[in-house]
Amino acid sequence: MEDNNLNEKIEQENEIKVNKVKVLTNVISIGGGIVFSVIVLFALYVVIRPQVESDQKATSNVFSKEQLERLEYAAKIIDGDFLYEYDMDKLVDGAISGMVDSLDNVYSYYETEEEYQESLNSGANSNYVGIGVHLTYDQDNDAIRCLGTVPNSPAEETGMQAGDVIKKVDDLVINKNTYTEGVNAIRGEEGSSVKLTIIRGEEVLEYEIKRAKITENNVTSEVIDNIGYIRVYSFDNGVYEQFKEAYYTLKNQNIKGLIVDLRNNPGGYVQDTINMLNLFLPKADVLRLVDKKGREKVYKTDDKEQIEIPLAVVVNQNSASASEIFASAIKDSGKGVVVGTKTFGKGVVQYVQRIKDHGAIDIVAAQYFTLSGVEIQDNGIEPNFVVEVDESIKNNMYISRDKDIQLQKAIEYIKEHM
User: Fold this and answer.
1) In a domain, 69, yes or no
2) What is the spatial distance between Cα 65 and Cα 155, in angstroms, rounded to a whole number?
3) pLDDT tens-place string over residues 36-50
């Protein structure tokens, strides 16, 4: 009888490879090894599945006999008639990549063994070489979209902004078919440069950005009029410990309210997000993961601590994945309010399945639902208070305090409820 409980299956699979659970929020690993050479953003929940068994027979319950014969016949034509030498392993890699590409889903892709190992090795280190951007696929523009930049990164210092649409990487024109190649092309050796052609509104801009070693500090904090303010740039690289330290430091200063700013935050690790919510919420089911077969994994808070001061979460159109999970849980629980604009809408789940020792397939296989039942994917989270900033600055990573009406609204709400 098939197991209908996804919790047990995920626990078993996690034993195979730990610390690969991400809501990437994409992104974090498209095209192999980009996870930490550039920060890429999809809403991802990555699970390593068991390798395909070596004793599988030549028969298949997926391919028909006729389909298997076509594959074999094509291989025989190449083997018998192709004039030059060839590498059969490369042919198989190409066939698998072609199958996944034919799914017509930008969040599903194939990694060669080299790419897979590089992504694992890169992912183990919070220091990486890149330009410091969070990226995803922009369906409307058929291009790469920048969701945000890492503080003090080459991308930020050059002038890149959230909302920038990347149409060319060096000489590569970006579209759905070249998206993964383009994201991979942004990474490279420390000290080397990449040329990006960017569309920003009506402008066409060209940036030549030198790659550098990036060390992410994902949390900053301060006190504003007796109100604690924490900015979270992404949910990666030890964010929970950083957030917890910032929160308790502010709490010890007897703050009368708290604002958590998640604007232009692409997401990151699910468990870190749940750990952060544990600082604020009563015991509750805050997130449901549902796969194709209807199996569920439920994420819960544990009621060890609850916030007793007014709380507001600030979001915008570039807040994605884990940001949406955090904001929706605060909103649904009634422990705080969400201020800003509707979020990005990234809530799909990705499984990474090894293919013996020859790469891996990353494939979208499930999605997330909030406590109130909202399907995050393509829908996003509606704020309690919708506040639109001026079009000319809405994608800015930093907005001056006098023009930041979203933050002003959050401060106003906190003061009214102190």
Assistant:
1) no
2) 52
3) 223 233 333 344 444
